[in-house]
Give the backbone structure.
Amino acid sequence: MLVLFLLPFLGAAALAPASPAEKTDTLRLESSVVAMGSAYSVAVYGDDRTRMEGAVDAAFEEVRRLDQMLSNYKPESELSELNRRAAERPVQVTPEMFSLLSACAEYSRESEGAFDITVGPLMKIWGFYKGTGRLPHRAEIRGALDQVGYRNIVLDAANRTVRFARPGVELDPGGIGKGYAVDRMIEVLKQSGIRTALVSAAGSSIYGLGAPPGEKGWRVQIRDPKDANKNVAEVYLKDESMSTSGNYEKFFHAEGRIYSHIMDPRTGWPAQGVLAVSAIAPRTLDSEAWTKPLFVNGRAWAAKHKPAGVRAFFCEDTPEQTCAWLQ
């Protein structure tokens, strides 16, 4: 459902729709849709209601298309088909899928394996695939680790095929899908003539296009990982993205500890020591992908290995909960 607003800064005139002759009024449109297991929201500014509505509809169609491509819950999706067949023989994929998997392989190499799209078996034994989590036996973890590792994905650029080096390998789009979808939605909005927009996937992956009227960018709050009613920082996004990974998103308590869904794919255990990381980058694909290895590897590693063009805000699990930008 599309909702159209006149901006409050227009004063009393905002209480009534502008006449066609009035060109100074700026409209704001907001809408949302559920796809890929998350809520995607869009806010756009403009002066052409028909164009704005058409652009938002087109952006939502794009995320629905990606759901059919990347979902690991839909058996007919391209990713599900790949998971079923790639251990048996090379599978030819679309150029879009091959490009995305190539990017994932690069993130894995640069993060020393802390980002890994093959983490699916671990997510299942830890109960995060469709549940809220469970503490697995160590034998289960060892068994899952045998099926995890980005080097098990064999990419053949010449034939545009993907092959798994061993049975049981399974791709999980959870660490990359939302960011990619947000970028694609922004591109659709641009192609439709929109110059000012905010696209958010579940509030954790966000892109700000341009800036709202009278503002220096889209103001986004970074929440306190221990108190949803408090914020620890705010940023203004203008033609850039921010993604956040926090241990408060999915977690469970066991044996006196908190275990979150943010997995270290090299050890098979949820990462410890960090409460939340927000990464800012030119593309949402980059910001979402990098929040995981920054979270898993920690501040000291990030200070040496964080890629150029990425800014990071850490909240660490210290007695006083230290939250600060990485210098």
In short: Helices lie at 49-70, 78-85, 95-110, 120-125, 138-145, 177-191, 284-305. The two ends are 43 Å apart (CA to CA). The first helix runs from residue 49 to 70. The domain at 78-171 is CATH 1.10.3980.10 (T-fold).
